[in-house]
Amino acid sequence: MSPRRLDPQIRTAIIDIAARLLAEEGPQALTTRRIAAEADASTMVVYTYFGAMSELVREMVYEGFARLQRYLTHVRRTDDPVADMALLGRGYRHNALANSHLYAVMFGGSAPGGFSLTEDDRQHGRYTLSNVVECAERCFAAGRFRAGDAELVAHQMWSATHGLITLELGDYLIAPYDADRCFEAQLVGLMVGAGDDHDAAARSVTASRLRFATEIASVPMAGPENLPSTEAAAANGRRRPASALAKVSSRPAPRRAEPGD
Description:
With about 260 residues, this protein is mainly alpha-helical. It has helices at about 10-25, 30-40, 45-50, 55-70, 80-100, 100-105, 120-125, 130-140, 150-170, 180-195, 200-215, 230-235. The protein is elongated and about 60 Å long. The model is unreliable at about 225-260 (pLDDT under 50).
């Protein structure tokens, strides 16, 4: 089958099915026969779209970060960069809850059995962090955060938010300190920790909550027809171009591995 005739919707469906099987039943469920049965297709379809199971596992990671990037890029740049920062955190959490099956694979929560990820694969999603780095720089410029290392601030925001979400997905956060209550308090605490005034931070976090419905929750569920052009190209089996967003750290932008690597 020619790559031009590949249906990106089927490709994405297979990725979702495989990720759910991996998250819910473990690596033993990750077989071409089982995936094909869930997709109501032949086993040849899996090989046609991915070449090998290792490539399918790799694409779970790529797809997960593509969906995360879609939410983060829907956050508008406003004259309240702290509210923008809080909304980036809300977008991160929303993506994790909406795509928990992919989120587990993106960060190693679901062990892919014998299909190991390369170091490049593990670092692939760092391009999404540039959204937070840019926002931190605007917070510095506005005098809301004390001047410092924007990348370090971004990593602090990321690690704290990821930790809370991991507990949330594991059902560890219960009333009266449930996930929503902890998350709202954490957002304010992170902004204050970065140098913002407590009352100003609280107002910005509240403003971000009011913006959530229109800027994050309204984003259509992920699908190839809704992806930006570079992601649509990847969904059709073509190599996505190197992005300047991958240059968040001194680590070079990851090379997308090919089947058989």
